[in-house]
Design brief:
about 80 residues; mainly alpha; two-stranded antiparallel ribbon
């Protein structure tokens, strides 16, 4: 999977793994059922962490969830900058 810059802003609302709940992490997008912000996952990957490293850091997420967040961010980034 190629690396990408999430500073351009990813619209996480279309990702099925994400929820935004008022009062939960100030209403920011988080992985459903957690307080984990997806940008942290993607930024770790972009900085060179492997999916296995990320899974060790956030063991409550499955490898499949981590891969999906990274794939979603990549696809969303491509739409922002065709």
């Amino acid at each position: 999977m190629p690396k990408l810059d999430t500073h351009a802003g990813i619209d996480w609302t279309a990702c099925e793994l994400i929820e935004q709940v008022p009062g939960k992490v100030s209403g920011r997008p988080v992985v459903r059922g957690t307080r984990i912000m997806p940008d942290g996952i993607v930024n770790s990957f972009n900085m060179g962490s492997t999916i296995e490293d990320i899974h060790e850091d956030w063991p409550s997420l499955s490898v499949a969830q981590i891969k999906r967040l990274i794939e979603f961010a990549h696809a969303n980034r491509e739409q922002l900058n065709p």
